[in-house]
Amino acid sequence: MKFNIKIANRIIQLKPIYNETSNYFADFITIDKPLTNDYLSITDTLVYKIKNVRNSSSEYFNLVFPVSDYLLQTGSVIFHGVAIKIGDDVFIITAPSGTGKTTQYLNLSNLYGSKIQIINGDKPCLESCDNKIIVHPSPWRGKEGFGANLTGELKGIVILKQRTINTIRRLKDNEAALPILSQFLYSVESTEQIDTVCKIANSMIRNCPVWLLENKGDYKSSELLYKTITTCGGIHE
Predict the structure, then answer these.
(1) Is the pTM of this model over 0.90?
(2) What's 33's DSSP letter?
(3) H or E, element range at 173
(4) Which residues contact 13 (CB under 8 A, 6 or more apart)?
(5) Are residues 83 and 63 part of one domain?
(6) Where is pLDDT greater, at 96 or 181?
(7) HSE of 134 in the Cβ direction (CA atoms, 13 Å)?
């Protein structure tokens, strides 16, 4: 069964192995037609050859790579992080899995209520457009399923690190590069892909402040985070 999804205004035709896989994409399925009759299938990818894709859940999860590869052709990509919107501004909280991204989002929501809107809870789509990064939702919302049909311009990035104290500081460009580059999700199969990702990362770093939040995961750390990103302040402890 083939079906079409829309991510960052791009139409992508998918042909899954399991019919139930379409359920995971329900909010993104569209009747709009793709520009070509080409389709993406997990069976055509390297990830399928090296991983066990034995059910609809694993197929859905691993389709992130071919979809992101496809999006890279037009300057968009899937990124690992929590994307939140405060007013008109979008911020991404990123770090390796298990570092506390969801905890920070939940803390912010409990502290500031409706001021905090969620775009995507795990893997938003980033679109490079006229030296700006536009953040879009994607079907990969994390195990909690946090996400909404919201978009906005990226205004800042927060890199998390667990620590026994709460401190935040603005990173220099060279400090921010590797932590950000490591969170792009794609197959890394061509120099063209790498070049495009590097250009998107460069745009992120050059046009948005990047902070390192070393934190305990408590409300105090989230208050520090909120104060910093909403005032674009410097070093706070």
Answers:
(1) yes
(2) P
(3) helix 173-181
(4) 2, 3, 4, 34, 37, 38, 39, 40
(5) no
(6) 181
(7) 12
62-77 confidence digits (pLDDT tens): 999 999 999 999 999 9
The tokens for 185 are 């999700």
Per the structure, how many domains does the chain have?
A: 2
- In sequence order, what E strands does 18-143 have? 29-30, 76-79, 82-86, 89-94, 117-120, 125-129, 132-136
Q: Would you call 227 helix, strand, or coil by DSSP?
A: helix
pLDDT surpasses 80 at 48: no
| Tens-digit pLDDT profile for residues 150-196 | 999 999 999 999 999 999 999 999 999 999 999 999 999 899 999 99
Tell me the residue range of the domain where 35 lies.
3-72
Domain end residue (candidates: 22, 48, 72): 72
CATH of the domain at 218: 3.90.228.20
Task: Give every CB contact of residue 141 below 8 A, 6+ residues apart in sequence.
Answer: 120, 121, 122, 123, 147
Report if residue 237 sits inside a domain: no
Angle between helices 64-72 and 191-207 (to 10 degrees): 80
CA angle 222, 163, 109 (to 5 degrees): 20
Q: Are residues 124 and 221 in the same domain?
A: yes
Domain boundary among 72, 99, 122: 72
Do residues 84 and 47 share a domain?
Answer: no
